[in-house]
Amino acid sequence: MDAPTTLEAPLRHTPADLPLADVRSAALAHDPAPARRTRWLRPLRIAELVLREAFAREAIERTPEPEAMDASEGAAAFDREGEAGGALAGVYAFNARALSRMLPRGGTLLDLGSGSARFLVFLARCRPDVRIYGVELSPAMRARGRAAIVRAGLPDRITLLAGDMTELEQIAPRRVDAASAIFSLHHLPDFEHLRRCTDQIGRLRAAHGCGVWIFDHARPRLRRTAFAFPDCFTPDSAAAFKANSRDSLLAAFSYGELRETLARQLPEAPRGACARVLRLYQAHWLAPRATEAENAHGECFAAPALSRQAERDLRGLHGILPQVPA
Ligand SMILES: C[S@@+](CC[C@H](N)C(=O)[O-])C[C@H]1O[C@@H](n2cnc3c(N)ncnc32)[C@H](O)[C@@H]1O
Description:
Blueprint: H1 20-28, H2 33-37, H3 42-54, H4 73-81, H5 89-100, E1 108-112, H6 118-126, E2 131-136, H7 139-151, E3 158-162, E4 178-182, H8 191-208, E5 211-217, H9 223-233, H10 239-251, H11 255-265, E6 271-274, E7 281-286, H12 293-300, H13 308-320
Parallel strand pairs: 1-2, 1-4, 2-3, 4-5
Antiparallel strand pairs: 5-7, 6-7
């Protein structure tokens, strides 16, 4: 086996050498301490990542993840990083601002693939006036989410619905002012499921004139980028969370794939942006037809208290996705 390169050093094996299952267990066995010891190398590793990705000729195919998140350590780690002070706080703050601009005073959000509802709790605190429905396929994630909603004292404002985001007719609430999908589309098994889900979003738009907000990873061109990303950008997270991030990147739709599908399935072509510099995040959005949401954002949005790292992450996201209103 070749000696690991700088990018691959956090894993004990080079990604190309091993079947994915072995690589997963290697990542799970990974001790984060060496990553902390080599923190000073991070800027160099990030620069290498950016350059390799920018000049890559190949473009990898998707490696889908299991559709529903279960009771695994990866799901638990994702849930923990959604707590205040976790690695997802900056991302949640970015998404909460964008969505708040789509919600009129007392408006209703329908969120698709809500997981353990951490983001929904975050948003409900930023916008104390709104009502939130989340659709989640996995019973384990719904159970985790309902417990989090009760702990946050928000069961009268957030409801987790059992359901599939590719079949919303039976479960969508009567009123929808905004529809969102955050870090969830990459869980869909294939393009047919993506088509069905975006068709459902298109129907919501046609019926309610609702705002649409989609935020997700974008698949890198190189497999090694997905392996290096977690240690570069969330070096202090648990190994299971890093493995989850890597698998999400490998499963993500590319910016072009998602943009093309949305343009075909939605009644109006949404605006879209792929992150500058390292193209690993993407957002697509349609402003609501009714215009009162912008005022409601100004009047009702309560900026959350963020850790210094989350503030940096929030500023960083606005820096790499400048088209999204701050
Ligand atoms: C990575 S989690 C994201 C959770 C949440 N949006 C967040 O950002 O914290 C994605 C969730 O989508 C759920 N999911 C996957 N396919 C789904 C489907 N067809 N319908 C509803 N939920 C689905 C998974 O079970 C998982 O809990």
